[in-house]
Design goal:
The complex is a heterodimer of chains A (799) and B (287). Chain A has 3 domains: 34-136 and 208-260 and 265-298, Aldehyde oxidase/xanthine dehydrogenase, a/b hammerhead (Aldehyde Oxidoreductase, domain 3); 172-185 and 300-474 and 646-798, Aldehyde oxidase/xanthine dehydrogenase, molybdopterin binding domain (Aldehyde Oxidoreductase, domain 4, 2-Layer Sandwich), CATH 3.30.365; 496-642, Aldehyde oxidase/xanthine dehydrogenase, molybdopterin binding domain (Aldehyde Oxidoreductase, domain 4, 2-Layer Sandwich). In chain A, 29% of the residues lie in helices and 23% in strands. Chain A is built from 20 helices and 26 strands. Residues 1-11 of chain A have low confidence and may be disordered. Chain B is an alpha+beta fold. Chain B has helices at 14-23, 36-41, 77-82, 84-89, 91-98, 103-108, 111-117, 124-130, 148-151, 226-232, 239-247, 263-286, and strands at residues 7-9, 27-30, 49-52, 62-65, 68-72, 134-139, 142-147, 152-154, 157-158, 165-172, 177-184, 193-204, 207-216, 223-224. In chain B, helix 10 runs antiparallel to helix 11 (239-247) and helix 11 packs antiparallel against helix 12. Chain B starts with 6 loop residues before the first strand and ends with a helix. The chains are: A alpha+beta (799), B alpha+beta (287). Chain A binds chain B through residues 46, 119-120, 123-124, 127, 291-293, 663-664, 666-668, 703-704, 708, 716-717, 719, 721-722, 724, 726-727, 729-730, 786-788, 791-792, and chain B through 1-5, 38, 41-43, 102, 183, 185-188, 190-192, 194, 259-262, 265, 268-269, 272.
């Protein structure tokens, strides 16, 4: 395999910068989001939410709320218990009741639902629902939760829900042997052991469009139509059908424009089920749109690990073993993927490295809001611990952190198909070339010289590095047999993708896909794929998405999977249409099928561009089958389910330059430089955009963001005043480039890129800050690196 | 976010607004809405009536009045930040306004609104204190002048009576120079202040003849750093004099611990920013 630094622009349909087809509508305000889509006679829902993290509900008095003008109904668990709990894909732990059932388990848990003429009246009535609580002790701290001193659910034996242990797939005794061997290595001569407990704090995913849902049940047709700001419309349709007793083809879910998801909309929520159910009860369309405060309290959160990373290695940089042991916060209730998120971290638990690795994360339940997928989902956490401890090890042995990394990479001769120390077979990789590219493009030596000079001037300049490997486009479909199956929601699909391509009578093409974008640019990327195969101009390819009523089954947009999995399905569907059209063109051109070439909006005979037909001419006979040769089937349409044999494993290396004001603890991020490798690139501009957003969210975790709970379970950072997000003004201009190592598991050679920026960046920034403060003796600072934390670390290092 | 029901009136004249405010129980004055609406949407505050002064003419001016400049009730942060009169005669206030919120907030929110909100983490109160501003509080009964140092009473509490509107901010033209510096919650100057300080100094033949220092984010309310002010007056403005003044930054101030800093850290930052603001103001005065 070859890796090359690629230019960021080319001109072919596949690999070219094509401006996003969706942007003119979105930028000019013509995009239709869920809250823009109105129904006649619709009414609004609001929720009464728990102010306590743990309390018994003695009684709920809804009389005053019911008596208020404009109120249609007030519901409690008594009204909906018969529907069962909220469904989850990996149902380990306690599933969420649709409304609190006797006991509340986190602040913000929905206790009652009010439906009224409008959202204002509904909120007034929700405030008028009187709940009599007996507060109980809450368990928030992860170590406290693991002790089972206070249990979150009486129905469970323990707060410990599951432990994910690696190497994956090994017998427990073999896993223990890996651990014991690493422990033994610590006792060796001339070795160094470095160990650090680190927090990977909880985060609140903040999409610019909050979650919103409107449901319209038509009793005449027996049809349920739901618009929801969701990453998984097919799963939501399945869940609504299964919960409410409707057949799958009675439920249509549309995810129209979706203004960001980041994993938080990769969930079926009780509010989505409840408004659908209420629409059946009331004979009105019912709408609910969350407020920012509700988003913080009842939409899933991410991360929330405390773990100790340990490296043992030689004094010349050979890592002899790596151990990670810690706890991950699941929150109160298990939702879609909750307990599986740390497992996704295990996939990349040993990163790009070859050292023996033992890995164990305990998933515990606490009296806090549920955690689940948030951009990266387990992989940023795993990368953070590994890449932080490698830096600490490098500092301990006095070796350059880039050198240590290179010395321990899985060598190229293991690819494709290298099996990582944590037990996963990877597709392709070329890590050394990638890091060399970063060293060159960043002028690493020059930066170190600049740092030396700054230190002489008493300035605290820091350079941080991180490598990362990502796993995404989860596959194969056989994962379903391990318990990761969408069948919970009534979907037959496991981890496969779908695409339907049709050439229309006028020679344009329409693509229907089972996934939809929440900012990823599907309408452009998919048009490029079809254009590349069929030579139909990108502007003549329309991509329809997110509507379960007219799309093939698709499991959703998440896990950096769309291009590699669903895109491959569209690629294969285009190939089938092309093969069929080639026969028709051959007939029209009176040529051999093998001699038909597609180019410039039509087909011609190889070597004779003048002997050509347009797509409209081909389509004319395709849709008038009497003009086709005897036995040839009409139509120009194909639908493909693509079943990849493996996930894809993108990788990269990031570098940050920071300056720290040691007097105040203020961190100034000066430069951010990346070399990512996501295989072949369909649209460099869209890939760059994904990396930009990913870095911003990783930097947000490193410097600003934290879902902070007090000891009684109150969320102290429940508004955007107290939950600072990075803005463009807080970030430097990112300096991006790429190496290209195509994957061998899909026809386009593409890997995912949606989460890479996040997986690579938090530790890069922290490594840079710690590097800046190394002369002061600072070895570690927990995120977020708010000035107060950095200043405190400096004071402690000073003693 | 959905506030509780409220009445809304938009008077055409200041007299109408003052009469409405005087006669309406539980009314609140709104101009830019940048502080008030957030609280209402969270239902932390539910005034029965909003009196919108946004359509009253002539309140949106910064005027030159011989011995002082006057900043009207509807002057936005953006205007305060960039107007020639403020940048010259109230540099610290203009600097503070330039770091308030983002562009949208600065184009919508008003300087007087921010002052009336009396948030300790907001930037402009310290600037007003340092620049010796006088607040003009008007009611149906007439005008009342309140010195900025006396205006900020406690957390989100100003000296305004329920029937008064802050109609104008007056900054005396005393000569001297001022500066503001802060640490934002998102680092640098970004976002509300963790802590900050504004300093105004007037030098006379190498001696600091007069000074005022205001603090942001340190106490429960924006306040005058009285000890530091006393220490710098009469000094030579040297590095040693600045350091000595900074040491007294929180004298008489009850330091507030919050999500963004412990008492120890806030105390430290108060000293750092008093020193930095003084350095910058003295540098301007010397130039």
């Amino acid at each position: 395999m070859t890796s090359t630094i690629s230019p960021t622009t080319t001109t072919s349909a596949l690999g070219g910068v094509v401006h996003r087809k969706e942007d003119p509508a979105l930028i000019q305000g013509h995009g239709k989001y869920t809250d823009d889509i109105k129904f006649t006679g619709e009414v609004a829902a609001a929720f009464t939410r728990s102010p306590f993290a743990h309390a018994t509900i003695n009684s709920i008095d809804t009389d005053a709320a019911r008596a208020m003008p404009g109120v249609h109904a007030v519901y409690t668990i008594e009204d909906v218990r018969h529907l069962g709990t909220l469904l989850a894909q990996v149902p380990v732990g306690a599933l969420r009741p649709l409304l609190a059932d006797g006991v509340v388990k986190h602040v913000g848990e929905a206790v009652a639902m009010v439906v009224a003429d409008n959202r204002y009246l509904a909120q007034d009535a929700a405030d008028a629902v009187s709940v009599d609580y007996d507060p109980l002790e809450a368990v928030i701290d992860l170590k406290d939760a693991l002790s089972d001193r206070v249990k979150v659910h009486d129905s469970l034996d323990s707060n410990l829900l599951i432990s994910w242990v690696g190497p994956f797939g090994a017998e427990p005794e073999d896993q223990q042997k890996v651990k014991a061997d690493i422990d033994a290595a610590k006792e060796g001569d001339d070795v160094v052991t470095v160990s650090q407990e680190m927090l990977n704090q909880r985060l609140i995913p903040v999409a610019i469009e909050p979650r919103a849902v409107v449901a319209d049940y038509n009793p005449g047709y027996g049809s349920m139509t739901v618009f929801s700001s969701s990453q998984i419309p097919h799963a939501l349709a399945g869940a609504i059908g299964k919960t409410l007793g409707l057949l799958s083809n009675q439920v249509r879910v549309v995810a129209p424009e979706v203004g960001g998801g980041f994993g938080a909309k990769l969930n079926v929520y009780s509010d989505e089920i409840l408004v659908s159910w209420a629409s059946m009860q009331l004979g009105h369309p019912v709408r609910w749109t969350e407020t920012r405060r509700e988003a913080a309290h009842s939409t899933v959160q991410g991360r929330g690990w405390v773990a100790t990373a340990t490296i043992v290695g030689t004094k010349d940089g050979e890592i002899l073993g790596y151990q990670l042991e810690g706890i991950a916060d699941m929150g109160a209730y298990t939702q879609n993927f909750t307990v599986a998120i740390p497992f996704l971290g295990l996939f990349v638990g040993s990163g790009q490295y070859k050292m023996p690795t033992w890995w164990k994360i305990d998933c515990v339940t606490t009296h806090t809001n549920t955690t689940d997928a948030y951009r990266g989902a387990g992989r940023p956490e795993a990368a953070y611990y590994l890449e932080r401890i490698i830096d600490m090890y490098a500092r301990e042995i006095g070796m350059d952190p880039a050198e240590v990394r290179k010395k321990n990479y899985i060598p190229n001769d293991q690819f494709p198909g290298a099996v990582s120390p944590v037990g996963f077979a990877m597709d392709t990789g070329d890590y050394g070339t990638n890091l060399d590219a970063l060293i060159a493009t960043s002028d690493y030596a020059g930066l170190r010289a600049e740092q030396k000079k700054a230190r002489e001037e008493g300035r605290y300049l820091g350079i941080g590095l991180s490598s990362y490997v990502e796993v995404c486009g989860f596959a194969p479909a056989g994962l379903a047999e391990l318990g990761f199956s969408w069948s919970t929601y009534g979907l037959p699909a496991a981890f496969s993708g779908s695409g339907l391509v049709r050439v229309n009578p006028d020679g344009t093409a329409t693509v229907q896909i089972g996934t939809g974008p929440s900012g990823q640019g599907h309408e452009t990327t998919w048009a490029q794929i079809v254009s590349d195969r069929l030579a139909i101009p990108v502007e003549h390819v329309k991509v329809r998405h997110g509507d379960t009523g007219d799309s093939p089954m698709g499991i959703g947009t998440f896990g950096s999977r769309s291009a590699a999995v669903d895109g491959s399905a569209t690629y294969e569907a285009s190939q089938r249409v092309r093969a069929k059209a080639a026969k028709m063109a051959a007939h029209l051109l009176e040529a051999s099928e093998e001699d038909v070439v597609f180019a410039n909006g039509g087909a011609h005979v190889a070597g004779s561009p003048d002997s050509s037909v347009t797509w409209a001419q081909i389509a004319e006979i395709a849709y008038m089958p009497h003009k086709l040769p005897e036995g040839m089937e009409g139509g120009l349409e194909a639908s493909v389910v693509f079943n990849p044999s493996n996930a894809t494993w993108p990788f990269g290396a990031h570098l940050a330059v920071v300056e720290v004001d040691a007097e105040t603890g203020n961190v100034d991020l000066l430069r951010y430089i990346t070399v990512d490798d996501c295989g072949n690139v369909i649209n460099p501009m869209i890939v760059d955009g994904q990396v930009h957003g990913g870095i911003a969210q990783g930097v947000g975790q490193a410097l600003f963001e934290e879902a902070l709970y007090d000891e009684t379970g109150n969320l102290l950072t429940g508004t955007l005043i107290d939950y600072p997000l990075p803005t463009a003004a807080d970030l430097p201009t990112f300096e991006l480039s790429r190496t290209v190592t195509p994957t061998d598991i899909n026809p386009m050679g593409v890997k995912g890129i949606g989460e890479a920026g996040t997986i690579g960046s938090a530790q890069t920034v922290v490594n840079a800050v710690v590097d800046a403060l190394a002369p002061l003796g600072v070895k570690h600072v927990d995120m977020p690196l708010r000035p107060r934390r950095v200043w405190q670390a400096i004071q402690e290092a000073k003693g | 976010m959905y506030p509780r029901p409220f009445e809304y009136v938009a008077p055409k004249t200041l007299d109408e607004a003052l009469a409405a405010l005087d006669q309406t129980e539980g009314a609140k004055v709104i101009s830019g809405g940048m502080s008030l609406l957030g609280l209402m949407k969270l239902r932390l505050l539910s005034p029965g009536t909003l009196i919108d002064i946004g359509r009253i003419p002539e309140l949106d001016q910064i005027e030159d009045r011989d011995d002082h400049i006057a900043i009207g009730a509807l002057v936005t942060h953006g205007m305060t930040a960039s107007h020639a009169l403020t940048t010259e005669h109230a540099t610290a206030l203009a600097q503070a306004a330039s770091w308030t919120g983002d562009v949208q907030v600065r184009n919508r929110g008003t300087t007087c609104g921010s002052l009336a909100h009396a948030d300790t983490a907001a930037d402009q109160p310290a600037g007003a204190i340092a620049c010796g501003a006088v607040m003009v509080a008007r009611s149906v009964g007439g005008d009342r002048e309140i010195a900025a140092a006396d205006f900020f009473v406690d957390a989100l509490t100003s000296a305004l009576e329920p029937n008064e509107i802050l109609v104008e901010l007056r900054i005396p033209k005393e000569g001297g120079r001022s500066a503001y510096d802060k640490l934002g919650r998102r680092g640098g100057h970004s976002d509300y202040a963790v802590a900050g300080a504004a300093a105004w100094v007037r030098s006379d033949n190498g001696t600091v003849a007069d000074a005022r220092i205001g603090l942001t984010g340190v106490g429960t309310a924006p306040s005058l750093a009285a000890g530091a002010t006393e220490a710098i007056i009469g000094s030579d403005g040297s590095a040693e004099a600045i350091a000595a003044a900074a040491e007294r930054a929180v004298e008489g101030v009850t330091v507030l611990e919050d999500l963004y800093g412990s008492e120890e850290y806030k105390t430290h930052l108060a000293k750092v920013y008093v020193a930095r603001a003084l350095e910058q103001a003295l540098a301007l005065a010397r130039s």
